Amino acid sequence: MDYSFLDFLALLGAVGLFLYGMKVMSEGLQKAAGNRLRSILAVMTKNRFMGVLTGIVITALIQSSSASTVMVVSFVNAGLMSLEQSMAVIFGANVGTTFTAWIVAIFGFKLDMNVILLPVMAVAVPLLFAKNSQYKNIGEFLIGFVFLFMGLSSISAHVPDLSQSPETFAFLQHYSSMGIFSVLIALIVGVVVTMIIQSSAATFAIVLVMGTKGWIPFDMCCAMVLGSNIGTTITPLLAALGANIAAKKAAMGHLLFNCLGTLWTMIVFFPFISLIVWITKEMGQGDPTQVYTLVQDHAKIAPAQLASMQFSLSFGMSMFHMVFNLVNLSVMIWFTKTYVKIVNHLVKSHNKEDEEFQLKYISGGLLSASELNITQAQREIAVYAERVERMLGMVKTLVHTKTGTSEFNNIYSRIGKYEDISDRMEIEIGKYLNNLVDGRLSHDAKLRVGTMQSIVSEIESIADSCNNIARTLVRKEQTGAHFVEYNYNNIDHMLKLISEAMSNMIAVLCDIDNASTEDLIPNYNKEREINNMRNMLRTENIENINEKKYSYQAGIFYMDIICEAEKLGDYIVNVIDAVETQVRRRERDDDEIVHNGEVVQTGIKS
Predict the structure, then answer these.
(1) Are strands 598-600 and 593-595 parallel, antiparallel or unpaired?
(2) What residues contact residue 382 under an 8 Å CB cut-off, 6+ apart?
(3) What does the DSSP 8-state code read for residue 81?
(4) What is the pLDDT of residue 434?
(5) Distances, alpha carbon 245 to alpha carbons 76, 80, 126, 343, in Å
(6) Is the pTM of this model over 0.85?
């Protein structure tokens, strides 16, 4: 057999082309349907059965169980679904991934894909240059589809022909005639290969080529596919490493589901294989074990007959993959709550307070489904705002706490600690958003990330202003200045207005995807009220100092606090401005009003 190193590199390149095609195809679909997928997950996980259906549909759509499971981990991380809901979606994702296997098996062997690949490419490339982002995403999906089947065809073309090398067959025969040990070896190989390439579909394609070339028997092909179900759990496990405890539990649940499923299958492996062979024959697709037998005997096979037997094997492998996952699902779905208990026992938080001042919804390591990670960032920003709101509450308490006491010092220390946390959160969320922008995002998603970056900066400024007010109160104590009741009343009223504006802002951030222009109007009204009060108090302050109602030094600190509070209002309304930009962009896209050939846009600010 003449098989050079260059041929081996070509084989690796073919595998790479297949993986890249699957990645591009999956990302194109995610970008085209990112918001819809979020909506589907939010609505369809109310009970375990709807969750299973959701997992099947989404995995079939995006052609990747790893991507859908990573998505589930990220949604658990973002608090959008419970651990029990995530288990049901993960169960469904395992069934949905069989759709990819059927596509590869049927299109790869039943149809001559080379006939249609270039025409599909001819349609896809112009779509990439379309102004409409959805057309671009569809074009990207089609190009990924072409690359996937080009890679599959190239893998088959560059795999060495072992029929010309009997000694190699003798080597392989040694490992394929060891009974259950051969199956275990194939299982381990399937696990390792899938962990390396992080794609069970790619493993399926490679095993499919090995089986149709007659390298290994049908039972070993099925064992490697079984191993790929465990190997594919590595992706969500890696994604959960930097995530919170809930996400780690979801990833562990995925691993546990596949390991227990593999365990019962191995116990009844050979009867199960006989069942699959019987089903394949009964459906008129031939005997999937025949290719290996004839190739091993060096029998002369007509091309048409070989193609028929190869399809029979690919059909049998797909049937094995589907039946295994369906049986696994049918059994495991009734033990969802038991799964949750087991996972809670296996994955424990050593110290629940460890996470109090850590990012709650986003992890240090970026998950692979970039388009869908926007939801995590939005939830984290809302938590960020809620944490800064606590600082404002501390400031309101500090104003009326007697200076020089341990209580005053403790509150002031907590405000400083929260300021440090705020700075750290701004940096971490900012890094996460920058990584999102570097990922493969749609144009609309990039605009949304830009909006979030502006919001994060403004929230950090709110934290700075809260800290500045606290420092002003400390300086007032150090200089011996004293406020009168008039000062306290006005500071309280100003901070009350700020607190109301802050609450309105957080309510908008918590439901930013559904925010409307009407939801933002109260904040603009509150901002005008804050500005008017600042202007009035500034004028009164000069008169009060002249009338000796309080000292000049007290008046300086008093106006420093009032002006800093007014800045707080400015930062809050800046957040609302950023949200308004996103809201108007969404409303314009969803509900353009065309009048006399011109688009009429309505806003709430001039």
Answers:
(1) antiparallel
(2) 506, 509, 510, 512
(3) S
(4) 83
(5) 9, 14, 45, 11
(6) no
